[in-house]
C-alpha cells in the first residue's frame, strides 16, 4: 500500500468526521452531506487504487484539490482556523503526497 492510498483514506475519513461534527454542532445538513459524499468518494478512490486502477489517483487528486480550495476560501472568509484552516493544511499535505505519487510512478 503506497502513501497516496493512505492519504486518500485519511483525508476521506477526516471529511466524513468533519461533516458529522458540523451537523452535530451547527445542525448543518450541507456539512453532513458534503463531508460524507466527498469522504466516501476519497475512500472509494483508495480502494480502486488498491485494485490497480491508475485513474483513481487522478480522481483522488481532483477531489482533494477541490476540498482544499473550498476550505481555503472559507478560511479567508471566516478567519477561523477550525475547521477550515486545519482541513486546508491537511488537504494540502494529502495533495502533496498524491501528486508526488502521480509524478513518481505515473
What does this structure look like?
By secondary structure, the chain is an all-alpha fold. The protein has one domain. Helices cover 90% and strands 0% of the residues. It is built from four helices and no strands. It is globular, with a radius of gyration of 14 Å. The mean pLDDT is 95.
Derived from helix and strand composition plus strand pairing, the structural class reads mainly alpha
When the domains are counted, the total is: 1
The parts where pLDDT drops under 50 for at least 5 residues are none
Shape: globular
The percentage helix is over 70%
Structure keywords:
single chain; mainly alpha; 4 helices
In short:
The chain has 106 residues and is mainly alpha-helical.
Which helices and strands appear, and what pairs or packs with what?
Layout (H helix, E strand, L loop, with lengths): L2 H24 L2 H22 L4 H24 L2 H25 L1
Amino acid at each position: 500500500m503506497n502513501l497516496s492510498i493512505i492519504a486518500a483514506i485519511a483525508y476521506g475519513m477526516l471529511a466524513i468526521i468533519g461533516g458529522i461534527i458540523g451537523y452535530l454542532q451547527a445542525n448543518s445538513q450541507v456539512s453532513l452531506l458534503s463531508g460524507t459524499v466527498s469522504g466516501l468518494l476519497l475512500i472509494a478512490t483508495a480502494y480502486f487504487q488498491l485494485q490497480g486502477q491508475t485513474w483513481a489517483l487522478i480522481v483522488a487528486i481532483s477531489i482533494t484539490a477541490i476540498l482544499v480550495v473550498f476550505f481555503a476560501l472559507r478560511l479567508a472568509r471566516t478567519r477561523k482556523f477550525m475547521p477550515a484552516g486545519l482541513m486546508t493544511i491537511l488537504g494540502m499535505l494529502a495533495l502533496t503526497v498524491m501528486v508526488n505519487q502521480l509524478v513518481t510512478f505515473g
